[in-house]
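in:
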C-alpha cells in the first residue's frame, strides 16, 4: 500500500467509472465549500480529456516517503544552507523536531496536509485551509467532510518544492525543471539509494503541481 498522487482524475473517472466520478464530485463540492468559507473562488475541475505530460515515471510511493521530503523542507526553512544527506534506514523522519517546529505554525502547504488523502487545488491562496465543520457520521452513513481535513494550494506547493530543491541538489533554472534534470532525477530514483525517497516524492509532487496549475486540475492524494 502507498500514496497515489493524481491529476486530471475527474476526466478519467467520467470516461471509465461514472459512479466513481459522482463520488469524486461530492468530494470536490466539500473542497469548494471550504474555499467559499475562506472567501475564495470555487474550483471548476476539467471534465474533458487532458494531455498530461508528466516527466515522473511513477504515480505513487510508500506513505513514508513524503515525510523524508517534509523533513528536508523543514531543515531548509530553518537552516537555509543545509544540505540533505540520507537518513539511516532505521531513522524515522517524522521524529525530527524541526518538522514539528514548522507544523506548529500551520503555514507550510507541503507539511500541513494529510499524507493519505485530500486535495491541492490550482487556486492561489496563502494559508492552508482547514475544514472547520466536523464530518457527520451515523450508523448508516459514511463520514462526510473535506477528505484529509486540510486544503492546499498547488501554487504554494510548487513554491515550496522549488525552495527545497537546492538542499536536495536539484538544479532548477528560474524555478523551472528542465527535461534533462527531470531525467537525471528519475535515474537517481531508480538507483534505490541515497536520497531516492526525497527525489521520488519531490519529482512526483513537482510534476503534479506543474500540471495542476497549467491545466487547472486538482492534485488528489489517494
Amino acid at each position: 500500500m502507498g500514496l497515489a498522487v493524481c491529476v486530471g482524475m475527474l476526466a478519467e473517472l467520467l470516461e471509465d467509472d461514472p459512479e466513481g466520478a459522482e463520488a469524486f464530485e461530492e468530494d470536490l463540492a466539500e473542497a469548494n465549500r471550504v474555499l467559499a468559507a475562506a472567501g475564495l473562488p470555487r474550483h471548476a475541475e476539467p471534465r474533458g480529456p487532458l494531455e498530461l505530460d508528466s516527466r515522473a515515471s511513477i504515480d505513487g510511493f510508500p506513505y513514508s516517503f513524503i515525510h523524508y521530503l517534509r523533513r528536508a523542507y523543514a531543515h531548509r526553512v530553518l537552516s537555509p544552507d543545509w544540505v540533505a544527506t540520507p537518513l539511516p534506514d532505521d531513522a524515522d523522519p517524522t521524529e525530527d523536531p524541526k518538522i514539528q517546529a514548522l507544523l506548529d505554525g500551520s503555514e507550510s502547504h507541503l507539511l500541513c496536509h494529510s499524507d493519505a488523502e485530500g486535495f491541492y487545488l490550482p487556486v492561489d491562496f496563502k494559508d492552508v485551509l482547514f475544514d472547520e465543520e466536523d464530518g457527520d457520521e451515523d450508523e448508516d452513513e459514511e463520514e462526510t467532510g473535506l477528505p484529509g481535513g486540510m486544503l492546499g494550494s498547488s501554487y504554494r506547493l510548487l513554491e515550496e518544492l522549488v525552495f527545497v530543491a537546492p538542499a536536495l541538489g536539484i538544479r532548477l533554472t528560474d524555478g523551472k525543471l528542465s527535461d534533462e534534470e527531470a531525467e537525471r532525477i528519475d535515474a537517481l530514483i531508480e538507483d534505490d539509494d541515497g536520497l531516492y525517497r526525497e527525489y521520488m516524492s519531490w519529482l512526483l509532487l513537482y510534476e503534479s503541481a506543474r500540471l495542476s496549475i497549467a491545466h487547472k486540475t486538482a492534485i488528489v492524494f489517494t
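note: The chain has one domain: 3-221.
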